[in-house]
Structure formats: C-alpha cells, structure tokens
C-alpha cells in the first residue's frame, strides 16, 4: 500500500486567505438571496470552514446562514465577524478546539508524519485522538463533567451530561461579535429541539436577539452535552430531530429567487458494512444525513406545483382572481421564484470510522478543511452551474461528486 501524499496544510494558512473589501459584491445571475446551509457533524465541521473559505475567495455574498449543531457554531463565527475576518476566525476556532483540553498532543511535525503515513497507522493514530477527546475533552469546547452523572441520581437538567461545555461559551464570546449577529446584515437561523415538547424550533435573528446560548443549544447533543436553558425552556441539539436546515431556507417567506450552498457532513450513500465498527459508522451516516435527497425531491415537487398553480391562475379572468377567495388563496400558494441548490457532501476517507465526528485532531481538521475548499472550488468552476433554473420546475440541484 502506498503512503498518502502530504496533507494540504497550506490551505488554511492565514497568508493564503483572500481579503474582501468593505464593498458588498453584486449577487451573481440576479439571485435575490444567497444562502449557506450547514449540517451538524462534530469534528467533520472543518469541511464547512473550507467551503466558506472558497466562497470567501470567490467574493460570494451570503445573505442567510442556517445551521445545526457544529453548523450552528460555524454560523456564529461567520455571521459574527466582518467578511474580511471570517475565514481567519474560523481557522482560530478550529485550531483551538482541536487541541486536547489538558495534556498536550504530539509535536506538530510528528503528528503530521503519522497522519501522512499508511492507512493502518493513520487509523490507529486517529483512534487514539478520538479516545483522547472522550477522556479529557477538547480545549475551549468541552471537558468531562466531574462528578459524572450517576444512574438513578437526579440533578439539575443543565448538569445531566457526560461533558461540561462552559468553555464553549467563552470561546464564542471571544471569537464572535453577537451585536453584529443581531444587527441582521446576515440572516441567521439555528435549529434546536425543545426537550419538554419535542418540537423543533429555529432561533432566528429576524425574530429574536441571539446569544451564545442559542448556538450552544443547537449543538447540545445528548447525553454527551446537557440541554441549554433559554427563557425557562431547555433545548437539545437540532440533530435529534433533523440535522439539515435546508427546508427552513427553501420555505422561507417571502419567496425569493434563491441560490443555496448546502454543506452536508454525512453522506446517505456508502459502502455495505463489513465489520461491527462499519455498522456503527454507517448507522450514523444514514441517521444524520437526515434524508437530504428526500427533502430536496419533496421541495422540488412543491415548487413544481406552485408553478403549475401560477400558470392555471393566469387562465382565470383578472376580476375573478381578485374577488374569488379560492383564487386569492391559490395566488398566495403559487410562485414563479426559482431555486438552485448546490450540494456539497463530505466524502469519508478509508481510514475513518464511527468516531470520525469526535476525532478532533489538527491534521484531520486540516484535511477536512482542504476537502471542503477543493469541493467548493470545483463547484464554482462548473460552467453555468450557478445560473437561475430555466426548467418548468424552477428548481435544480447539483452535486460535484455526482458529475465526476
């Protein structure tokens, strides 16, 4: 077996980050909204940071960011900083949380050498990093709760978890400007689940003032992390119900011509498991991919129906369209808006296993980042890929990996 090529660490060097001026660039192809949709997936979220760097390089304006779990944390870092500082803040965040909480990791040169070795060595090395995350936590993110919760013993809801995420709040406050988030220049929506009702909710800066707790709630995956209290209610990670906030964006009101960059960390497609560890990994892939293809297919059909309804209404006399209550309601349901969903999905590596979402090694983070950067560059390079749909449905999707 041949060794891996050296990891593309230069992809996240600050010197390589393109700077944007304060002038907001025009939206391509006449879109009214450009949205970034970020799925949950723990340590895999560095892939999303790489995607954002590519959008940053292309001077792509972002009007709306929707995230869940680690996607919500990336959302806070992007929306909570000016465009010229966002990629740098993302890098600072990821290099912070990919350090062990207490005991120092291996020297950088030794870690990179192990990581760039054979699959068997890389598998053992990344497994040890995942074990370290479980035993001591990650710097600026979470640490083991002491004393740990014991079976049969009750406690306050915010203490019923294996890990304490108090450090995450400090990290977010340090790296994000929450006043900027709430000014609303970029719309922000992060998903969570109400523990008491089981209802899925979106915390949105067009409807409320967002605080660090809203983003932490979106990433409070039980039983590892405790629910977060907000206004007397407790919330868990949105991925408990749905790990992809695409529907929130595509059903947004008022409807607008929208370009969506949907960045998924789990692929619904994958190899047949051959070992019990493969079963654990494949289960996560299927569970947390949240039926993304089903969602896009459903929304595409909805948009087709809205277009059909619009065409039918055009055949009704104007006076009747205005006076007939059924026609009025039909007009509200119809739409001539168009949607283009650019789907970027992280593709698993041969050395990864079921612990890939809590394997917070610096080398792995940089590889994930580079993969996201490569994928968005390839996506943006597709001729006509970002154009407004011209089909009858008014809805198209594109996945660069499906065209390779």
Automatic annotation (TrEMBL):
PROSITE patterns: PNPLA. A motif (DGA/G) lies at residues 237-239. A motif (GXSXG) lies at residues 67-71. A motif (GXGXXG) lies at residues 40-45. The keyword S-adenosyl-L-methionine does not apply. SUPFAM superfamilies: FabD/lysophospholipase-like. Pfam families: DUF3734 (PF12536), Patatin (PF01734). Coiled coil: none annotated. This is PNPLA domain-containing protein. It comes from Trinickia dabaoshanensis.
């Amino acid at each position: 077996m041949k060794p891996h090529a050296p990891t593309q660490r230069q992809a996240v060097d600050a010197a390589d980050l393109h700077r944007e001026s304060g002038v907001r660039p025009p939206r391509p192809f006449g879109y009214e909204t450009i949205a970034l949709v970020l799925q949950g997936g723990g340590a895999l979220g560095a892939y999303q940071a790489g995607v954002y760097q590519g959008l940053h390089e292309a001077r792509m304006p972002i009007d709306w960011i929707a995230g869940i779990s680690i996607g919500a944390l990336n959302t806070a870092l992007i929306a909570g900083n000016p465009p010229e500082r966002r990629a740098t803040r993302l890098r600072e965040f990821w290099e912070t949380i990919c350090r062990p909480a207490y005991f120092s990791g291996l020297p950088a040169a030794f870690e990179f050498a192990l990581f760039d070795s054979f699959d068997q060595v890389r598998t053992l090395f990344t497994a040890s990093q995942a074990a370290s995350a479980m035993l001591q936590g990650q710097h600026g993110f979470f640490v083991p709760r002491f004393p740990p919760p014991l079976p049969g013993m009750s406690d306050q809801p915010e203490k019923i978890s294996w890990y304490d995420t108090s450090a995450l709040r400090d990290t977010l406050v340090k790296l994000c400007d929450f006043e900027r988030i709430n000014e609303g220049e970029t719309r922000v929506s992060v998903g969570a689940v109400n523990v008491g009702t089981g209802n899925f909710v979106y915390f949105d800066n067009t409807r409320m003032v967002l605080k660090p707790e809203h983003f932490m709630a979106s990433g409070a995956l039980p039983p590892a992390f405790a629910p977060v209290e907000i206004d007397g209610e407790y919330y868990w990670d949105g991925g408990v119900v749905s790990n992809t906030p695409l529907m929130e964006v595509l059903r947004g009101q008022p409807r607008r011509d929208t370009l969506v960059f949907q960045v998924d960390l789990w692929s619904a497609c994958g190899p047949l498991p051959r070992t019990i560890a493969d079963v654990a990994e494949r289960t996560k892939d299927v569970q947390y991919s949240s039926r993304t293809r089903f969602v896009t297919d459903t929304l595409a059909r909805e948009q087709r129906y809205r277009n059909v309804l619009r065409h039918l209404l055009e055949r009704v006399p104007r006076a009747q369209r205005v006076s007939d209550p059924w026609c009025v309601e039909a007009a509200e349901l119809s739409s001539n808006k168009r949607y283009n969903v650019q789907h970027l999905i992280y593709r698993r590596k041969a050395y990864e296993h079921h612990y890939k979402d809590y394997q917070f090694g610096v080398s792995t983070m940089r590889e994930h980042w580079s993969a996201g950067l490569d994928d968005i560059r390839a996506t943006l390079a597709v001729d006509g890929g970002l154009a407004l749909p011209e089909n009858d449905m008014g809805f198209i999707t594109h996945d660069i990996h499906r065209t390779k």
